[in-house]
Amino acid sequence: MPSLKLENVAKHFGGLKAVDKVSMEVPPGEITGLIGPNGAGKSTVVNMISGVLALTEGDITVDGVSVATDRADIVARKGVARTFQNIRLLPEATVLDNVMIGFHRREEAGVLAQMLGLPAARRDTKRFEEKAWDLLRRFRMEDFAEYEAGNLAYGHQRRVEMMRAIAAEPDIVLLDEPVAGMNDVESDELATIFRELADSGMGLLLIEHNVGFVTRLCKKVYVLDSGRMIASGDPEAVVRDPQVVAAYIGTSGH
Amino acid sequence: EDYKVVILQSLTGGAAFIGKNVADGAVLAAEELNEKGFFGEGNQMVFSVEDDATDRTQTLSLITRLAADEDVLMVMGPTSGSVAMAGANVANEREFPVMTTTNSMEVVENGPWSFIMTQPASITMPFIADYTAETLGLERCAIIGVKDNEAYVALQRMYESLITEAGVEIVSQDGVALADSDFSALATKIATSDQDCVFIGTPAAQGANIILQLKQAGLDPSTPILGHNAFASPTFIEKGGAAVEDVYLIGAWVPGGDDDFSSAFAESFEAKMGFPADEWNAMGYSGMQVVAHAVRDAAEAGNLTRDGVRQALGEQKDIPVVVGTHTYSYDEERVPYFGMKVLQVKDGAFTVAPE
Amino acid sequence: MIQFYYAYQPIIDFFLLSVGFGYSQQIALRAGVFSIATAGFAALGSYCVAILATKTGVPIFLTVILGTALAAAVGGLLALPLARLRGAFQAIATLAFVQIILSLLLYGEGFTGGALGIVGIPREVNTWILLIVVGLTMYVMWNIGRSGMGRVFNALRQEESVASSLGVNIGKYHIIAFIISGAVGGLFGGLQSLYTFQIEPHNYGFAFIVNVLTVVILGGRTTLLGPIMGALIMAILPEIARPLAEYRQAVNGVILILVITFLPNGVGDEIVFWFRRRKQARQQQHRASEKEARDAVS
Amino acid sequence: MLSQQILNGLVSGSVYALFSLGFTLIFGVQKLLNFAHGATFMAGAFIAYYCTISGLPFLLAIGFSMLATGLIAILIDLIAFRTLRNRGNAEFPALVSSIGVDLILVSIAQQVSKTQVLNFPFGTFPIKFYDLFGLRISLLQIVILAVVAVLVAALIFYLRKTTFGRQVRAVATNERAAALLGVNAQSVYLQTFFIAGALAGLAGVLIGLLFNSIQFLMGEPYMLRAFVVVVIGGLGSVQGAIVASLLLGVTQSLAVAYLPSGLTDAIIFGLLFLVLLVRPNGLFGDINAVAGGTRQ
Amino acid sequence: MTTLTISDLHVSYGGVKALRGVSMHVEQGEMVALIGSNGAGKSTLLNALSNVVKRKSGEIVFEGRETKGMSPHSVSRAGLLHVPEGRQVLGDMSVYENLQVGLIARGKRNTIYTLDHVYELFPVLEERRDQIAGTLSGGQQQMLAIGRALMGGPHLLLLDEPSLGLSPLITDQVFDALKKLNAEGLTVLLVEQNAHRALEATSRAYVLDRGQIAFEGASEELAGNQAVIDSYLGA
Ligand SMILES: Nc1ncnc2c1ncn2[C@@H]1O[C@H](COP(=O)(O)OP(=O)(O)OP(=O)(O)O)[C@@H](O)[C@H]1O
Ligand SMILES: Nc1ncnc2c1ncn2[C@@H]1O[C@H](COP(=O)(O)OP(=O)(O)OP(=O)(O)O)[C@@H](O)[C@H]1O
Ligand SMILES: CC(C)C[C@H](N)C(=O)O
Ligand SMILES: [Mg+2]
Ligand SMILES: [Mg+2]
Which intervals hold domain ABC transporter (chain A) (predicted)? Predict the structure, then answer.
């Protein structure tokens, strides 16, 4: 399984250095954390990896091959999936259809076969439907399968985002605050799923403000502040780093 | 007996300025003829007015439906353009006589069941083309036409080829759209270019407006302006006012009438409608005379069928009408003839132009 | 029945033609492309067929294929520059495309007959042929709706960035949508010219654009039933209000407003959605009662 | 002749601007294309015409017509847009309902005018020509340029210097959020529709006067131009609409004057196409804001 | 004095019953928490209070006035300001303009909250006053949404998950700010997933479960009752 690497990646918006010479790695089979204060540049990192934003400097590689200038869909085809911090669903489509679109990369039937309704196209649809239901059950969302996604409660919308991202079994998943808006019990359910995904060999990048959650799950944590990497390493150690405490965690000891 | 005829014209949409007026004239004629007992004791024409909406689809479905109603002998209409053409096509398919308002020979050529009511360009345009080249002796003409209506384009093409043959040079050719009203750029262009006449082949109101804008743009007031029979409408003078003074045109209808029959029509039309008749009202009135004669002839020949009416219509000769030289005839090719006059606007009225 | 068909046949035929144009328009909207190029595609198809059929000896069947291919190819090419545009900007660019086609048709008099158009096109198409072609078109649309392509189109329409984050090549699918829209538009344009005997540029102008849009919006932008219902309403609307003579237009306006206000997704889509929702409600009820039963046991 | 043609183009363009501003405003605030805008414009000319021939002084007729078209526009909003808007996602349905309103208005006008082309009686406005640096300019053209300039300035002032402009933008961006912040979206809609209608009505009167022609179908060609202007200018951009209107007016004048007449449309729309390729969001739109999976 | 009284409130979306007879009250100067799991109906309740969604039945009385039939903007102009779920900043407008739009709800009412006050609470908003709000980071947008509501001079502030997406430090600051605002007299109804945080900051709390109030009482008492928390905030 491939590994995702960032080398000296920077993104400037006009004069603002939103991300400033950041290097990090998301290895397979592990959950890697990315934390930092609001506006530190975490989502910007995700946007650069996933092909939404162009890099100002640096390089991003998957399995040693650069993806830094690839279009978003090409990055996705190379096995990198993501969720969005500001939830983006197909609001009018059902939950099931929202998940189904996640399998796009795995389609085998060609355009003509699809238009003519050849068996190859039907097989695709059938296979995806089965897998989608598996996912729905795993995320305990099967009761909502026929719901219009736009009408779901916030926490449920988050789950749809995640199911869609992992549907096509990507090598790397970038999760931008996946458990925001969930309480501890709900977050723990998802933590189990994340761990299972990592165990199956996927590399996860987890952005999250719930520090307890991050320390429990991650093998390694990177900390961004004002675009720069101020710490990285073992989660327990990182969250005690005075610089991190001052910039991010605060004194109330969370 | 009842003779059932349907007057199907563009009462709405782009060609309504023709169709509505033709229908008004035709209705008046049919009412008068019934009143006069034209069809003989106990007989009368039963007519209804339908709208082709200047829409091909609606026309097709209406004609088909009317064709399916065996009581209907014939249709007077539809009005013009592709609507008339499409109408002619179903009519021939369903063997159902139609007398379309248009002057397009293609309608006639489409088959024996489709007729045209107005004279084709090859008959009308020589009147004004000869007047341009010979009577007025003009040499360099600027042409303004309508680019998006095939009937007007056909007239313009005919005029162009006739004057070119007669040795008149065409210095410029411009097309406007029927819906345009902003001619400022065109007017400036023509007013500042070099020609000794301007021919305008547009509907009356639009033509008047173009002339107004030409004059406002500084066109030499002595430049002769010519047009075709579309200008023969009170609208032209009403819209153009002083600007259209001296304009030459051709017309089948001399407003107010120029013999007993036409004067009587002018009077009764204004009495009924509250406004004076124009060329299209007169055409509708005249066309209905021809239809009525054809229907009566068929009845008298004991062949009151669609085929009988069709044959009778094609054989109509010298029917008294209110337009042109006051008689209306179809020739062997079923081309209508009733003559034209070259007119000129003088003192805010149409008069016969000096020879 | 035969009598009815005899009297109303043109309405039926025009309904079928509108359904075809409707699908050409709908496939673009489904893919999130606000294209109004259908008028241009139809013009291309219909002129291609008309010119070949009246001026050359090409077999009629082949002229239709060529017209379809031409419109599809132009559709594909049009998609390339349009790739950078979205929403109303696409609409205006496609409007420009239609206007350019129309003015070239007016201008190329020697070839296209200018404003006079082309007359004397053989009438080779009848209701049955139209029915078969509409049927085939529906079959393809139905397959598209149930396949990955349909899912991609849905995604592109609702949230493009999501689609591309999942590996969808947006440009490619826009090209596909334009090619299908062009092919269907060109196909029915060709059939139309073999049906109406005479064509002119004016037939594919602003009124055409507005009409096809109305068919699809009024009928429904996403389901197979949409264009059918839209075309049906547009075909019978003039007939309903006919007795009102000159106020007909106004009555048509009132009907359009009422229908779309109460069924904003379009009549066809609302019908399909209604059935879907009913099915969902039943499933939900079923699951709920299952759950209760289980709870009672435990 | 070149400068004369540019002047002609500027006058036509400034009337396009009046027409298009309302269209752009409505689009700007609710992202809806109002197909009935052309009919409102037509109604303006009709109302002023009937007021004038029934003896009302011309200025009063104009004022009355603007008031009436403003109210007509409000009515259009209530009938065609309001319910759809409240249900959300009105973009396409509103197209159809506004076409419905257009049909109704045009049909009424057709009945009233009996399909005839109308014109203001001669002498409604004095026909006077001036010679200005060799240019022929009429009093009416001068008045139109001045009136349009003043109105445009007033509108920009109203949008920029009062809270109205901010409310418009807030509603345009997110109606629900705006409502939570106390913005009365309904009143914003009513105001924009009134302004749009009144401007369109005035444009109708001016066009009717300038080109001596009032007709029930007169709105249609202006709608087509308004689409072009509004998009080229950048959707919802007031400055964009003005610049694009003037550009379109001048381009059309020059095309008529210097290009083969059959090809003017092809050339103008070809240019339009090119402009869009170079500036995919119009002249005054954000050049970078193009989606499509490419990195920004 | 009672700022807000809700009695027997029912809300449905089509066939889905989201609220089934909710009754609660908020006294003036109080800060009250509303907690519950995903889909419990918390956001629906706040939306019903600001009249963004229509209630099916029940009464809502704000400062002595039944709000039934009032439009959302009148509700906010009356001083009931709602910071919605998902922030809903005006994405095309600058930070400053967003705050200025916030002023509209204030009208001519007196308030202690000024632009300086907001800048003091959230200094980053002053730093970024000209940035387009849609490009702010998630947390920055949350601050803007709260700041903007304060500009409207609230008598009652409804907050839907204000800590969502905020870093721990900023969350602390926001809760400190809320406590401070509350101490200054602002009445707050707070929806939070972060139950511990919410209970620690408030004096009273309600737990919503599948559209019904399952528990109400002093926050302190609830915080100590792990059983209640587990059974209602779990799954
Ligand atoms: N398009 C843009 N233009 C200007 N500034 C931007 C743009 N996009 C992001 N920024 C700025 O870049 C910085 C980094 O933003 P980013 O969204 O990556 O933060 P983040 O770490 O994800 O924060 P949060 O935890 O609040 O989500 C912020 O200050 C933000 O305002
Ligand atoms: N517009 C809508 N249409 C249909 N159902 C809806 C709609 N909005 C919410 N619901 C349903 O109402 C229920 C309550 O939703 P609500 O958003 O109020 O939950 P919540 O308590 O805020 O959850 P969360 O903590 O995830 O935000 C959910 O089952 C949801 O699916
Ligand atoms: C009734 C069918 C023709 C419609 C079809 N189920 C669809 O949604 O596309
Ligand atoms: Mg972020
Ligand atoms: Mg919620």
Answer: 4-251
Both tokens of residue E81? Answer: 């300001």
CA end-to-end span of chain E: 36
What is the residue extent of each domain of chain A? 4-79+170-252, 90-153
Question: Look-up: residue for tokens 């099931």?
Answer: A96
**What is the per-residue pLDDT across B53-64, written as a single tens digit (0 to 9) for each?**
888 888 988 999
Q: How large is the average pLDDT for residues C245-256?
A: 81
SS3 of residue D190 by DSSP: helix
CB-based pocket (< 6 A), ligand 3: C 145, 223-225, 272
Identify residue C204 by its one-letter amino acid code.
Y
Distance of CA A250 to the CA centre of its chain: 26
Neighbours of D203 (CB within 10 A): 30
Residue identifier of the C-alpha nearest atom 24 of ligand 2: E38
The listed CATH number (3.10.450.50, 3.40.190.10, 3.40.50.300, 3.30.1340.30) that belongs to domain E2-233: 3.40.50.300
Give the Cβ contact number of residue D113 at 10 Å: 16
Alpha-carbon distance C107 to nearest alpha carbon in chain D (angstroms)? 5
In D, minimum Cα distance to E74 occurs at: D182
pLDDT at A254: 44
Interface-testing mutation among C46, C124, C200, with chain B (most B C-beta atoms within 10 A): C200
Q: At B142, phi and psi to the nearest 5?
A: -95, 135
Q: CA–CA separation, C30 vs C158, rounded Å?
A: 9
List all residues 6 or more positions away from C120 whose beta carbon is below 8 Å from its beta carbon. B106, C54, C197, C198
Say which ligand is closest to the CA of A84: 4
Task: Kindly tell me if the per-residue pLDDT of D88 is higher than 90.
Answer: no
pLDDT per residue over C109-166, tens digit each?
A: 888 988 888 988 998 999 999 999 999 999 999 999 999 999 999 999 999 999 999 9
Above 70 in pLDDT, residue B82? yes
Chain C residue with CA closest to B86: the answer is: C196
CA C105, CA C193: separation in Å to the nearest integer?
15
User: What number is the average pLDDT over the span D219-228?
Assistant: 86
Is the domain spanning A4-79+170-252 CATH 3.30.70.660? The answer is: no
Residue A94 main-chain phi, psi, to 5 deg? -70, 165
**Whole-angstrom distance, CA of residue D57 vs CA of residue D52:** 6
CB of B276 within 8 Å of a chain D CB? The answer is no
Cis peptide before B78 (omega within 30 of 0): yes
pLDDT score, position D261: 74
Query: How many residues belong to chain E?
Result: 235
CB B221 within 8 A of CB B251: no
Average pLDDT, chain D: 88
Residue A225 forms beta bridges with which residues? Answer: A228
Q: Which of E46, E52, E42 minimizes the C-alpha distance to E195?
A: E42
Rounded to whole angstroms, the Cα distance separating B274 from A230 reads 92
Alpha-carbon distances of A246 from A103, A218, A250, D284, rounded to whole Å: 43, 21, 6, 44
Report the SS3 class of residue B264: helix
Q: Tell me the two tokens of residue E79.
A: 């001083």
Pairing of strands B319-320, B327-330: antiparallel
D-interface mutation test, from B54, B157, B171, B184, most D Cβ less than 10 A away: B184
Nearest beta carbon to residue E73 from set D169, D173, D183: D183
DSSP structural state of residue B327: E
Answer yes or no: is the C-beta of A148 below 6 A from any ligand 2 atom: no
Q: In whole angstroms, what is the distance from residue D171 CA to residue D165 CA? A: 10
Please state which of the ranges A99-108, B314-323, C67-76, E191-200 shows the lowest mean pLDDT. Answer: E191-200
Q: Please identify every residue whose CB atom is under 5 Å from ligand 5, which is an ion.
A: A 154; E 43, 85
Per-residue pLDDT band for A253 (boundaries 50, 70, 90) equals very low
Find the angle CA(A230)-CA(A234)-CA(A235) to the nearest 5 degrees. Answer: 80
